[in-house]
């Protein structure tokens, strides 16, 4: 509970500067809602007002739809709540859960983004929308599930949903100016706020500075070592022979020239997903036969500006510094990582006649994260089903270093590094594990050569290294090397 309170309080501090704005002031200063005061004035009186009850009803309505689907269509036992849960909700104690990784750290943030976007679509500012987010998440945890309310769900369905929700809200505003259908697809709450309740908002255009999509074909090799453990008891080498991966990269506004007090006025969002042939080994899961045969990875890396200042540090130099928020999710056949981390950052770009050199540094504090516990992932420790989870919850630190050399003649060379120091704390349903540290580094180098103005090809080499130092357990070290050949289409 203390960690949950600290997490929510930290984000409230970041957003507190917005709490005193009126609806018209917020919309006038927010490029995701209106392009100018003049355009805002063109909206009718109804569309310029705040509508808190519309935002709240959209959040509650989404909970009702989702709970009904789980109960009546799927028949989930945990969704069959009744008066006993509703009348005694205050007696239920928060605890950690052991749900599916994808559900906890992607679907829950997405679920919360529905609450958040309903409030934003009703002209509430970010702090007010975050409050609706907390309300919607609390109703879900205490009234829509028979399971004990979850601490990690409350964090990821509020803080994580703020990150995801603000990015999706802005992207829906951006694409709706070109194709309204995609605006509704990205933000389904527009059906409620715009179509049903008639709150019309001005769409933005031209805020996306980079948008590309690509396909890659690659191979993964993994090597592991456990101190003082017979190598016959675990796979020291695993090979995933081939995979096909799709990805998209979106940069919203120029990260090197942004000067703002508005959260997520600029953000960087990278998504990739793919599948291929498995290594012949599996984790402890419900579909172990499939896990042996299938390679998979789903990755979401994002960082958004909370507040930033543009710095004047020389001619032909663009620089910004400020506060940001990192939301990472990486679910791989071999490992798991997720983080929510407020950060400080510095970004600099040097502009030359033919070339550009860019670099960024982000230093973050992990409010709540997760990573896999190797002994459980490869079934080295027997555990009762009711306590097993392949990952531990963590706090700690995260850093991001990005370097990019952009040459009109030689193409684009990039180096990205993400580093994590993650501490697994006590009492989180993992009865047979101990506290300890995981140190993880993910280094990606890439060369991208343009074939035309829109199409480029290239190669990427990615190395992930991890050291696991768990008290009263043998130390684990492992490394993965991934090679990918890709083609990319640049929409912008």
Layout: helices, strands, pairs:
Blueprint: H1 2-15, H2 23-29, H3 37-42, H4 45-48, H5 52-74, H6 83-87, H7 101-121, H8 126-143, H9 151-156, H10 159-176, H11 180-186, H12 190-196, E1 208-226, E2 237-252, E3 267-277, H13 288-293, E4 294-311, E5 317-332, E6 336-351, E7 355-372, H14 374-377, E8 391-407, E9 411-424, E10 436-450, E11 455-470, E12 476-490
Antiparallel strand pairs: 1-2, 1-12, 2-3, 3-4, 4-5, 5-6, 6-7, 7-8, 8-9, 9-10, 10-11, 11-12
Give your account of this protein's structure.
It contains 14 helices and 12 strands. Helix 7 (101-121) packs across helix 10 and helix 10 (159-176) packs antiparallel against helix 11 (180-186). The chain is of the alpha+beta class and 492 residues long. It has helices at residues 2-15, 23-29, 37-42, 45-48, 52-74, 83-87, 101-121, 126-143, 151-156, 159-176, 180-186, 190-196, 288-293, 374-377; strands spanning 208-226, 237-252, 267-277, 294-311, 317-332, 336-351, 355-372, 391-407, 411-424, 436-450, 455-470, 476-490. The chain is 30% helix and 39% strand.
Counting helices, strands and paired strands, the structural category is alpha+beta
Number of helices: 14
* Low-pLDDT ranges: 1-38
Outline: globular
Radius of gyration: 23 Å
Helix content: 25-40%
Give the biggest beta sheet.
12 strands, antiparallel, barrel
């Amino acid at each position: 509970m203390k960690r949950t309170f600290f997490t929510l309080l930290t984000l409230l501090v970041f957003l507190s500067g917005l709490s005193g704005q009126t609806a018209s002031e917020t919309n006038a200063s927010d490029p995701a809602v209106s392009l100018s005061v003049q355009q805002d004035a063109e909206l009718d009186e109804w569309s310029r007002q705040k509508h808190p009850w519309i935002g709240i009803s959209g959040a509650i309505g989404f909970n009702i739809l989702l709970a009904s689907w789980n109960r009546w269509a799927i028949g989930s036992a945990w969704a069959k709540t009744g008066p006993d849960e509703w009348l005694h909700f205050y007696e239920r104690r928060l605890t950690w859960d052991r749900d599916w990784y994808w559900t906890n750290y992607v679907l829950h943030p997405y679920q919360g983004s529905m609450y958040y976007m309903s409030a934003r679509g009703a002209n509430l500012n970010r702090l007010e929308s975050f409050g609706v987010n907390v309300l919607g998440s609390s109703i879900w945890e205490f009234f829509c599930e028979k399971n004990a309310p979850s601490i990690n769900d409350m964090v990821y369905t509020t803080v994580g949903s703020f990150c995801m929700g603000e990015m999706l809200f802005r992207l829906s505003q951006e694409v709706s100016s070109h194709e309204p259908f995609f605006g509704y697809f990205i933000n389904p709450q527009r059906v409620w706020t715009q179509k049903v309740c008639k709150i019309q908002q001005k769409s933005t255009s031209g805020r996306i500075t980079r948008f590309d999509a690509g396909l890659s074909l690659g191979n993964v090799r993994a090597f592991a070592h456990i101190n003082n453990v017979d190598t016959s008891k675990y796979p020291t080498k695993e090979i995933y022979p081939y995979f096909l991966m799709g990805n998209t990269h979106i940069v919203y506004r120029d990260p090197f020239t942004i000067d703002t007090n508005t959260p997520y006025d600029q953000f960087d969002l990278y998504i990739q997903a793919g599948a291929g042939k498995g290594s012949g080994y599996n984790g402890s899961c419900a579909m172990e036969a499939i896990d042996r045969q299938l390679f998979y990875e789903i990755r979401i890396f994002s960082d958004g500006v909370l507040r930033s200042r543009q710095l004047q540090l020389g001619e032909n130099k663009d620089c910004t510094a400020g506060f940001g928020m990192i939301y990472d999710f990486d679910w791989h056949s071999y490992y798991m990582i997720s983080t929510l981390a407020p950060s400080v950052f510095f970004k600099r770009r040097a502009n030359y006649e033919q070339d550009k050199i860019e670099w960024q540094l982000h230093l973050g504090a992990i409010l709540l994260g997760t990573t896999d516990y190797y002994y459980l992932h490869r079934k080295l420790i027997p555990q009762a089903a009711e306590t097993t989870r392949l990952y531990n919850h963590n706090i700690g630190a995260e850093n991001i270093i990005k370097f990019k050399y952009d040459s009109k003649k030689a193409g684009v060379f990039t180096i990205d590094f993400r580093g994590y120091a993650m501490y697994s704390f006590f009492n989180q349903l993992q009865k047979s594990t101990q506290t300890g540290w995981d140190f993880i580094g993910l280094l990606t180098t890439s060369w991208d050569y343009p074939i035309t103005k829109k199409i480029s090809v290239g190669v990427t080499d990615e190395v992930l290294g991890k050291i696991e130092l768990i008290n009263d357990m043998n130390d684990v070290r492992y490394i993965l090397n991934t090679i990918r050949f890709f083609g990319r289409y640049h929409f912008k």
